[in-house]
Amino acid sequence: MDVRTLTLGVLTHGAMTGYDIKKCVEENFRDVVSASYGSIYPALADLAAAGHVTVTSVEQEKRPDKKVYAITPAGHERLVSDLVATEPRHRVRSEFLVLMCFAHLLPTATVDAAIDSISAYWRRILEEDIEACEAEGLGPNGTPLTPGMRFALGYGRTVVTAAQAYIVRHRGTLLRELAEAANATNPMPSHDQAAHDRAAE
Amino acid sequence: MDVRTLTLGVLTHGAMTGYDIKKCVEENFRDVVSASYGSIYPALADLAAAGHVTVTSVEQEKRPDKKVYAITPAGHERLVSDLVATEPRHRVRSEFLVLMCFAHLLPTATVDAAIDSISAYWRRILEEDIEACEAEGLGPNGTPLTPGMRFALGYGRTVVTAAQAYIVRHRGTLLRELAEAANATNPMPSHDQAAHDRAAE
DNA sequence: ACGCGCATGTAACTGGTTACATGATTGC
DNA sequence: GCAATCATGTAACCAGTTACATGCGCGT
Fold first, then answer.
1. Mind spelling out the 3-state secondary structure of B60-88?
2. Contacts of B105 in chain A (CB under 8 A)
3. Do A76 and A40 form a contact (C-beta atoms < 8 A)?
4. pLDDT per residue over A99-135, tens digit each?
5. What is the DSSP letter of A30?
6. What's the CA gap between B43 and B8, in Å, rounded?
7. Contact at CB, A99 and B86, closer than 8 angstroms
8. Which DSSP string corresponds to A125-190?
9. Per the count of CB atoms within 10 A, which of A174, A190, B61, B80 is most buried?
10. Taking the model in full, what pTM does it have?
């Protein structure tokens, strides 16, 4: 997704500085897109040159001027046509799952730590990004949630909840299977536990 | 995730050409990582130079030679340490969800089409990438599934199923709310003066 | 005194993709 | 005859991030 489109999108929730836009994206969309200053500022310059946003220098006491950007009617049109032209992809890039696929090559502690860390990550998303937002009912810039945002939040909640439940339920199985496979391939020399296990099969 | 690590990983399932590696990644990991020739071939050159893979030119009748790459013990060590050093991230980048967040700005047909398309996408993943793989029990290069792969496949199945169920259940609500909101804001269509005023604050 | 929040910007880097060049074989 | 599969590679391009440069005010 083009940063310009995203920028126009958040500007529909009110006029903002580049700094605000980044905060806004971080607070509301960090789990599905990203935007850094290095992309936002050039995007704003671009949009301003095209007349899709206006810039207003606001003098501040005790601080340098800030530039407040607002979307124009032309910008709004562009936003809509950009959004309509956006193919609705949804990609996952997961080092975690790749790690799991190669779990049989790794120390148990690493696998365990990876599962802990992803679990914590999801808990954080659920609590901080989803439930907090649903509870207060406010989106970008203190604006009320749109139906689409409620839909997206609900989507996130069900998916993250399902993912969390899955790993809680299957972590033990994975670790046990991993241990069994390791035993079968690599039986420990003293007290041949593996032989005992094989006999018990 | 570094393409080199991924490459070493798939090579644990047997010696392969660069071409094979790409196919292998596409068939088994396309939903969580990506790798193109433009990254695989340089990666192989790199790994060969470091002694982490060996290259064997295989003469073929009726075809030019092919280079078969195999992982070395040193490569295996490197793979493990790379994997251990990999932080287990899991990121979603979703144009679809952003689109949903701005659904109130879009024609209903666009929103509808986006939901259809993502639904079809998930169905395809579920059927072609997950269930097919679980059913035949085979992973990269015809190798049996490792415990971690079964875990990852199960994860994918539950998450995709949950996502699919969510949109089936909530699509109607979203569309209805969108229509209501449109009616409330825009009974007699004129330019959105209110929004412009808000922006000008 | 130090770091954080506010605020704007740029330059270098990066990790990749796209598209191309090349070419034979097999199947429709 | 055309597309697809096999097979290797390179160069140009791209959208983004990281890190830096700059600087004031506020709280601790």
1. ECCEEEEEEEEECHHHHHHHHHHHHHCCC
2. 12, 76, 79-80, 83
3. no
4. 999 999 999 999 999 999 999 999 999 999 999 999 9
5. T
6. 10
7. yes
8. IIIIIIIHHHHHTB-GGGPBPPHHHHHHHHHHHHHHHHHHHHHHHHHHHHHHHHHHHHHHHS--SS
9. A174
10. 0.89
